[in-house]
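Attaching the record inline, Q. Sequence:
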Amino acid sequence: MNILRFVNTTIGQKILMALTGLAIVGFVVAHLTGNLLLYVGPDAINAYAYGLKSEPTIYLIWAARAGLLFFFGFHTIKGIMLTLSARRASPKYAVSHTNKASVFSRSMIYTGVVLLLFVLFHLAHFTFMCINPEFKSLTDELGRHDVYSMVVASFQVPWISLLYIISMLALWMHLCHGASSVFRSLGVSHPSWVLWTDKVGPTIATVLLLGNCSLPLSVWLGFIK
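Structure, as predicted:
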C-alpha cells in the first residue's frame, strides 16, 4: 500500500516518467545500432533481421514492442497530466515557469505526442507493412525478408523520408531536455554534477539525431542504394 501511495504522488509519478523515459531511450539506441547495419550492406541487415524473427528471439521482440507501446503511451499521457495538473494548481507559477523555461522544456508535450504518433506509423509501415503490403513478399537470394531493399525503397519516397527526419528532430528536442531532467527526477542533482548531467540530454539527442537522419539522407545521396 505504501508503494501504491508513493506511485500516486507527484514525485512518484515523476520517477515513473524518468524510468519509462530511460527504457525508451535504451530501445531507441538499440534500434539505431541495428539500423546502422544498412551501411554494411544487404546481407548484414537482412541476417540481423532474420535473427530477430527466429525463435525464441521473436517472442522477446514482440514483448519489447508491446512494452515500448505501453511505455510511450504511459510516458506521453502521464506527462500531459502532470503538466496540466501543475498549471491548474498554480497558474501564476506556470506562467512564470513558462517564461523562464527553454523552448525544449516548453515543447515536451507536443514533441511527445509527435513521437507517439510516429511510433504507431513506424510500426504500421515497417513491422505490419500496412502502407506498402508488397514489402511482405520481398526476399533476398537466401529467402530471407529483404529488409535492406524495403528500407531503401521507403526512403526513396520523399514524404516518408521527410516525415522520418521531422520525427527525429522532435526526438532531438524531447531528449535535449528530457534525458537531462531524468537525473533531477531520480534525485541525482548534486551541484557538482549538474554541469555534466545537463550535457547528457543534448549529447544523446544529437548522436541519435545524426545517426537516424543519416539513413534517409544517405539513400537520397546514393551512398546507400
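The mean pLDDT is 85. The CA atoms of residues 3 and 12 lie 9 Å apart.

More tomorrow.
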